[in-house]
Amino acid sequence: MSGEAGAPANSLTIAPRSRIVTTAEMQAMERAADAGGHSFATMMARAGRQVADEILLRYNARAVLVLVGPGNNGGDGLVCARELQAAGVQVRAYLWQRRTEPEADYEGHYQALVAAGVATARIDADPDLAILAEWLRCSVVVDALLGTGANRPVTGDLARLLAAVNAARAEQRFQVVAVDCASGLNCDTGAVDPFTLRPDLTVTFAHAKRGHYLFPGAGFVGELVVSDIGIPAALAADLYTFALNPGMVSSWLPSRPADSHKGAFGKVMLVVGSEQFPGAAYLSCAGAGRAGAGLVTGAVARTVWPLAAGRLAEATWLPLPVVDVDGVQRVIAAEASAAIAARLGGYDALVLGCGLGNAPATRQLVADLLAEQGALPATLIDADGLNCLAQLADWPARLPAACVLTPHPAEMARLCGLTVAEVLAQRWELARRMAAAWRCVVLLKGPYTVIAEPGGWLAVLPVATAALATAGSGDVLAGVIGGLLAQGLAPFQAACAGAWLHAQAGLRCAAELGVAGVLAADLLPRLPLALAALQDNRM
Q: Which residues, 6 or more positions from 411, have their beta carbon under 8 angstroms from its beta carbon?
């Protein structure tokens, strides 16, 4: 990926098993693999064996109950049961709508299971679910009832079965392992049926599915393992949605040799803060420094400068003239744009907007700065910068070449002229479409933040924690991405890596402090620890 925000999509290399696919895409790849000689039977055998291996690896599986449904998902479950039996585990298989007569027994999996001595029962021969209740006294339940293509409401015997398992789980405390996806989870929309079992582990095949990363479905995944079932990687070459992971992010970070100096790690200026939001100046500037930028300069209202500088001694500062707003507060005066532009020449990145306010003078300041678009370094626009942007005519044409926008859903709604509900209903598609239309990187915040770039790539951040749901958290994120831009990362990689680091700092806060009561400033000392963990991943 080049430093241009509009670099072509195929210039980014993403490992096949990091990609996220729709049900239709997955089915097309399976058909293509089968036509190419890698049969459905081989894929099923590998899938069932992979699930069994993951169970043996993770759990002291003394007794396992496999819930078997129709179709390939149930077939995977039968193979899994046979593999577990061969490994010495006590296994039982409980069948729902699974045909077992020889002509319908695909690859003879059911007969092989019976021949191996595995006890089986059918729900239609267990009207009071007494057998199910007895067999639920186990350590692991494998959910192989419905596969990725299922999207109808759960009713009838299946509803009774899942309700009984959910009720027993509260007392028995067994682990649940989902084959490909939890039964009742729509793998395209993330919708979840009320009867869905919440798994501790999901073993999916070839690629993760959309519903694994879309809430509420993302809450019905547990640990997600993507297993290789032999589908050629080339079949995913034209699929441009993927999940971030530490190995990927660490590969994008710049090296930091021992003989470095501060100039080697870039200079970032942040035009941020106002009397109403002075903390935004501190949090964003500190975030840039904690992300490793060599020099951080806060361009702030003169009245905010003593507060920010008194708390962050390491930054340099550009105090700016202010103007009164309704006699209540003061914001940066529009004419300050000239002083900012005069200093920007030596900087590698610009962060614009955190806590600026939305007064007429602020909107003019944003407009005047963007008028210098050809002279601007890599630029991130956040918060009030976005709100000001949305009120400017033809604003996408004003964006500099290397630009990152970081809206939350309400800010995205203003930029697009939509309602927040409309944004939330199409987060992935909207981010990708707008990144292409605006020719910039769009980071759309939320549980499982998404990052899109003009060439078509969409990255999903697989982290959601209430520890980040706190005022000022977005200011830290903007500073982190700005700090990475200053170090030379291309806009898309900087946005992805910044989101990852920010999320990992949030997870550390949740683990150390709890999810309630975390302050945005708590993220700051944990950012270098998250960076160090990524560096360790490279070694």
A: 383, 386, 387, 390
